[in-house]
Structure formats: C-alpha cells, structure tokens
Design goal:
By secondary structure, the chain is mainly alpha-helical. The chain is built from 15 helices and three strands. The protein has a three-stranded antiparallel beta sheet. Bound molecules: iron/sulfur cluster (SF4). The site of iron/sulfur cluster has 14 residues, from helix 9 and helix 12.
Length: 321
C-alpha cells in the first residue's frame, strides 16, 4: 500500500539522516519535549538549542517554573523572539502543577486543555513523548503531504481537519512507528521538501511522489516575503523588553523613552507589551509581569541581588504574587 510505503521509506531515511537533536534523545521527558516544541515554533533549531538547554537547566520540571514569577520566564526567553511563548510555557507549567500533580498529562484531550497548547503541540507531545499514534501536522508536513500524496505544488490555505485526516492515513498502525513516521515527515519537510527549492534528487520519496510524477509545476501564487524586522514595532518591542529584562524591578518611563525616537511607535509598542501581559505599569514606571526579587538561592548566578532586604525599596523591585 503506497501510504504505508511512504511512511516506511520516510522512517528508513530518518533512521539514517535525522539530525542529532537533544530533545530527540532516548529518555528525554515530556516536559523537555513540550518546551522544545514551543520554542521551535517560528524559531530556527540553531537558536533554540542554547535556550532550550538553559531553560531546562533552570526549570527541569514544570513545578520549578510554576514557582517563579512570569518575569523570570520572560528574562530567560531572552532574544528568542515572540516572547508571549514564555508566558504560555509558564501558564502551562502552572496548569500542569494544579491539574496533573506536576506531570505533563498523557491524554490528548488533557494536553489540548492546557493553556497555550494547540492542535500541533498537543499531538507532538503525545507522539514524541508518549509514543502515541496521532497525526503531527506542522507547515512542513502539510507541504510534504500536499506534494507527495495530492500532487499539489503547495499545501494551500490551512484546513486543519482535512490535514489531520490526510496525514493520519499515512501513519503505520503501530503507535511507536506512527510516532517515528511523524518525526520523519517533519524532518523531510524541514530539510528536503523545502518550500522554495525542494531537493527532489535527494528525496527518498521521489519514486512515489505524486507531484514529481506530474512533472513538477512551479508553486502558484505570490511568494511570501519574510516579515520586515528593522524599524517594525517588533524591533521596538524587543528593545523595550531588553531594558526591562536586564533590570530587576521598575524602570521609569524616561529611561524607556531613550530606546526609540519615534514617540508614537514607542508608545504603541509599550502598550502592546502591556496588552500582551508581558509588562505591567507601576505608577510612572514599568516592570516585567509579576516581577519581584527572588530568594538569593533561586536567582540566576549572573543576576544575584545579595541581601534579604533589597526588595524593600521601590527602585529595585515590586513584591507581587
Ligand atoms: S520528490 Fe520532491 S516534491 Fe516530492 S516529496 Fe520529495 S522533495 Fe518533495
């Protein structure tokens, strides 16, 4: 059967060619896999690797992250981009502690019910952490399936239920092999069946690929341009957040005014950070969400604030819980 042959071929290729990524190592737990999946959304592997290691060194279990304020999660997120993901991960950690005794749940419905965990992330954790049979469909998998199975040049607009059904039909019956096939499809989509110039000559699925068999027509429609960063609100948000990350406690508005000349754009970026729950206004100052001085033994070594009374003054911290 072509469907299962596709999966078997992909798995054989994956066995030989998969990147050696730490979250794929045997024995890596569900929490570490969940963190990797959230970090990898919209961020390249090479940037995620050091951030993932640092995050898990500090918060090896959900309970450790849940015990720290959101500000610490935002600080650790650093320059990974799209920092609301840090809040989502912490919200997830809190829910895991409150609802599941600190253990990442195994059931798909329980995973889907965690804050900030969507259809993709829930299935990725269920498959890669617990070896369950679920279609794990990201952009790369949608494109691979569209080309190899449907003979379409690209996946077109997202149609989640149809994507899930189409991918589920390709998976082997055995749950562990199905999870392996999902990982293989993702890797093929990321490394070989790439959007602009698919490497069909190197593709293990070439002999059974419907798009290749049809003569490979070029993708139709406008090519998506990468989003501009320089000068965009995202850059201003990043600069404001960098000042707040590097400061323990409130930062006066005057200091934030120095990071960007355009008053309207700076005000819009700051308001956006507040709306997103990343930053809180405190009088004429701003703090990272829930910022407070941690006990010395919980502070990262490079930001330790010695002495138990430093948090008392308004210039160094606001105690919140
Ligand atoms: S043969 Fe080309 S188009 Fe088909 S799955 Fe492989 S890389 Fe993609």
């Amino acid at each position: 059967m072509v469907d299962k042959e596709l999966a078997s071929t992909a798995i054989r290729w994956f066995d030989e060619n998969a990147r050696d990524l730490p979250w794929r190592a045997p024995g890596v737990g569900a929490w570490a896999i969940l963190v990797s999946e959230v970090m990898l959304q919209q961020t390249p592997v090479v940037r995620v690797l050091p951030a993932w290691r640092a995050w898990l060194a500090r918060w090896p279990e959900p309970a450790a992250l849940a015990a720290d304020p959101p500000a610490e999660a935002i600080r650790m997120w650093g320059r990974l981009g799209y920092p609301r993901r840090a809040l989502r991960l912490r919200g997830c950690a809190v829910a895991i502690v409150e609802r599941h005794d600190g253990q990442v749940p195994t059931g798909l419905d329980e995973l889907l019910a965690l804050p900030g965990v969507g259809a993709y992330t829930a299935r990725a954790v269920a498959a890669f952490a617990y070896g369950q049979r679920h279609p794990v469909v990201d952009t790369n998998v949608r494109r691979l399936v569209a080309r190899a199975v449907a003979g379409e040049p690209d996946a077109g607009p997202a149609t989640r239920p149809a994507d899930l059904v189409a991918t589920a039909e390709l998976l082997p019956v055995d749950p562990a092999r199905a999870a392996r096939a999902s990982a293989a499809f993702m890797e093929l989509g990321a490394l070989v069946c790439v959007a602009r110039t698919p490497r069909c000559a190197d593709c293990p699925l070439a002999s059974m690929c419907a798009w290749r068999a049809s003569g490979r027509t070029a993708p139709e429609g406008p090519t998506r341009r990468p989003q501009r960063y320089a000068g965009a609100d995202r850059q201003v948000r990043g600069m404001l957040l960098a000042v707040l990350r590097e400061t323990t406690g409130p930062v006066h508005r005057d200091r934030l005014d120095l990071v960007w000349d355009d008053d309207a754009q700076r005000a819009r970026a700051l308001a956006g950070l507040v709306d997103d729950g990343l930053v809180e206004p405190v009088g004429g100052s701003y703090v990272l969400a829930g910022d407070r001085i941690l006990p010395v033994d919980r502070q990262p070594a490079d930001r330790r604030v010695p002495g138990p009374r430093r948090a008392a003054g308004p210039e160094v911290g606001t105690e919140r819980t």
